[in-house]
């Protein structure tokens, strides 16, 4: 297949639309089922590059949850704790494969943003992963292959019309990439930077103790940023992104956005949330929405009379600001990657509130000394990569 006609482009009025190989060669993908759209393919190709890089640099199966051409979550296939199984709603499932664990983590980090995602998998999709995908609301999946059992499970979604794309794992794109904006063609070399240990070797803080787990998580954060709309930062803990701040014009706004998502991920593991008395028949999406409101500033929207009865068997107590702060103060060992330098120390101050201990950023600001000084104040470890990772 050398080209694939699409229904429309980013919006229904943008016609005609297609994907094709400019050199006339075969497309590196096969559409097994469904009718993927323009944005589906943008998410699929960005997401697959991300998980391919994660697998290459960690040796672990990887998954990404993409929405609007940025990852809502990305993770490698580490085992799930009982608490994570509960907050990700898979505690009722049998033993999950490493690839399934990767997707559960990627999907679960920010379930509000991941609703209706496009899934990317680094490895052949197995039945365990397909069973997780089957129960979530998503647009489709891309992977280098699928077992017969996995395909049978996926074909049960959307009456057999769920989008399933297979990509050739041996495909190597041309070294130059092109795009058009306003009829003008842009050309640049592909972003092929290898996120490796050497890139993180220039530690500029007094504390230079970077354990292997933090080194792995910093690589995950930077690989995630390679495929996230800039400006962007990424919080990572225990092999998974827990907060992605994408497409903001201000660096500190990126940190605030990603930090809030990381905070929400941690608050969902609090005793107050784990003990919420949900009705048995509450839908997963409604449960996600209720938790998001309950842990936020507008908690009375779900706790006021006439509303709590819709989702809870009894009215839960307020999760007070003091209780939230006390719980957040227990979060530690978080890593933070940034696609460009931090121009002010306010970014570090905000990161500290979300348990950040390890940071990677390019460096190169005229205020680097002030940023390093702030890291030293909190005994953080910070590496300067010397490389910017803008993605547009």
List the helices and strands and how they pair.
Layout: E1 3-6, E2 17-20, E3 29-33, H1 38-58, E4 62-67, E5 70-76, H2 82-87, H3 98-108, H4 111-114, E6 117-121, H5 127-134, E7 138-143, H6 148-154, E8 163-167, E9 176-181, E10 184-189, H7 212-226, E11 232-237, E12 240-246, H8 251-267, H9 271-274, H10 284-294, H11 300-303, H12 308-311, H13 321-328, E13 334-338, H14 346-352, E14 356-361, H15 368-377, E15 381-384
Parallel strand pairs: 6-7, 7-8, 13-14, 14-15
Antiparallel strand pairs: 1-2, 3-8, 4-5, 4-6, 9-10, 11-12, 11-13
Helix pairs in contact: 1-7, 3-5, 5-6, 8-14
Broad CATH class of the largest domain: Alpha Beta
Biggest sheet strand line-up: 3-8-7-6-4-5
**Assembly classification:** single chain
Sheet with the most strands?
6 strands, mixed
- Per CATH, the architecture of the largest domain is 3-Layer(aba) Sandwich
Instruction: Work out the helicity level.
Output: 25-40%
| pLDDT < 50 runs, ≥5 residues | none
On the 0 to 100 scale, the average pLDDT is: 96
Instruction: Report the strand count.
Output: 15
Descriptive tags:
392 residues, alpha/beta, Cytidine Deaminase, domain 2, 3 domains, six-stranded mixed β-sheet, 35% helix
What this model shows, in words?
The chain has a six-stranded mixed beta sheet. The chain folds into three domains: 3-167, AICAR transformylase, duplication domain (Cytidine Deaminase, domain 2); 192-267 and 328-384, 3-Layer(aba) Sandwich (Cytidine Deaminase, domain 2); 277-318. Helices cover 35% and strands 21% of the residues. Strand 9 (176-181) and strand 10 (184-189) form a beta hairpin. It has helices at 38-58, 82-87, 98-108, 111-114, 127-134, 148-154, 212-226, 251-267, 271-274, 284-294, 300-303, 308-311, 321-328, 346-352, 368-377; strands at 3-6, 17-20, 29-33, 62-67, 70-76, 117-121, 138-143, 163-167, 176-181, 184-189, 232-237, 240-246, 334-338, 356-361, 381-384. The longest helix has 21 residues, at 38-58. It has 15 helices and 15 strands. The chain is globular and about 60 Å long. The two termini are 28 Å apart. Helix 3 (98-108) runs parallel beside helix 5, helix 5 packs parallel to helix 6 (148-154) and helix 8 (251-267) runs parallel beside helix 14. The chain has 392 residues and is an alpha/beta fold.
